[in-house]
Amino acid sequence: LNHGRLKEDEARKYFQQLINAVDYCHSRGVYHRDLK
Fold first, then answer.
1. In a 3-state reduction of DSSP, which class is residue 20?
2. Residue 1 above 70 pLDDT?
3. pLDDT-derived band of residue 6, with 50, 70 and 90 as boundaries?
4. Helices (H), the chain
5. How many degrees, rounded to 5, is the angle at CA 15 between CA 6 and CA 7?
6. CA angle 1, 19, 9 (to 5 degrees)
7. What local confidence, expressed as pLDDT, does residue 14 receive?
8. How far is it, in rounded angstroms, from Cα 28 to Cα 20?
9. Catalytic pick among 1, 3, 27, 34
10. Residue 25: other Cβ atoms inside 10 A
C-alpha cells in the first residue's frame, strides 16, 4: 500500500470483485436481509 491508499487499478479490482459478489448473491435469491 502507498501510504494507506490503494493504487487506482487495485481499488478498481477490489470494487469489481465486490460488485461481482453482490451480483452472485442476488442471482441466487440471497439478499442483505438474509445475511444477518
1. helix
2. no
3. confident
4. 8-27
5. 20
6. 35
7. 92
8. 13
9. 34
10. 14
* Residue 36 amino acid letter: K
Whether 34 is catalytic: yes
Higher-pLDDT residue of 31 and 25 is 25
Grid look-up 490503494 returns 6
22: nearest Cα among 8, 35, 9, 7: 35
Cell of 10: 487495485
Average pLDDT, the chain: 81
Cα–Cα distances (Å) from 1 to 7, 13, 15, 16, in that order, read 8, 14, 16, 19
